[in-house]
Amino acid sequence: MSMIELRRLRAFVAVVEEGNITRAAERLFIQQPPLTRLLQGLEDELGVTLLQRLPRGVRATEAGNVLFNEARALLARAELLTEAVHRAARGEQGHIAIGFTSSAALHPFVPNLLRRYREILPGITTQLEEAGSGELLDALVDERLDVAFVRSPASGIPGLTIEPVLREPMLVALPVGHPRAVDSAQPLPLASLANEAFILYRRPAGQGLYDAILAACHRAGFSPRVIQEAPRLPATLSLVGAGLGLSIVPASMRRLGGDGIVYRAISDEAQLSAPLYLALRSNRSSALIQRFRALVTEAVSAQHSG
């Protein structure tokens, strides 16, 4: 059997629902003869009688009733399909893969944004991936991710655009009982940490922050003595809590708490802050990704005005 045209099915459903060819023709905005031809064509195509002619109007035969029920379901599905395609074109339906670093996930901005995104666009399925900045940028290039929140500016990667989202202060994380953990209300000058043992997250994982900390220490006149590198920021804090040394972390890491850790502000002259960037492929062709980016921009400006 050939594919039945939707317009023939639409005509047939209208006729059965109205029980009258004249009224169905008015409802479909067509003349009666072409409607009769559509129905005749449908019966010829299927090789069965679908309508029983009555003195006043028509009614479906048994075969016609089966077709009527199936056709109604099919036409409803076709309408949903059209609407789904339009929603996707408007960036309201589809799938988006979002990456973020572990420290980005702890900044209230990211979870709040994702929650708002789900509320505004419930038709979109989201896949969330947590990894280091380097891995996230690789996944973007390979098109395994659509967007990513990263800490590293990573400029110069062909095909990627990195847009600044926000900056947050960085704090010194010290083990409880450390001499500098006492007067926690006062900001610490970075130079006062010149002889301390530093625990930092490995450069490939936290390239942006690692470089920023090293540069700030050099400006303060010393090169930090890094005794241990951890694969992730939360692991760094565990080592600080165990008393192995101190670290410098984005302020949002405070949300992790951590037993045996005291956080202290760093004095302003260190010019040390942790940036958060949105990374995405430069050919932002997808309406979905454009919609996500617009939401990020909106959330950033709301934060500034709030």
TrEMBL record:
The keyword Transmembrane helix does not apply. PROSITE patterns: HTH_LYSR (PS50931). Residues 4-61 form the HTH lysR-type domain. It comes from the Bacteria. One of its GO terms (cellular component) is protein-DNA complex. One of its GO terms (molecular function) is DNA-binding transcription factor activity. Keywords: DNA-binding, Repressor, Transcription, Transcription regulation. Belongs to the LysR transcriptional regulatory family. This is Ben and cat operon transcriptional regulator.
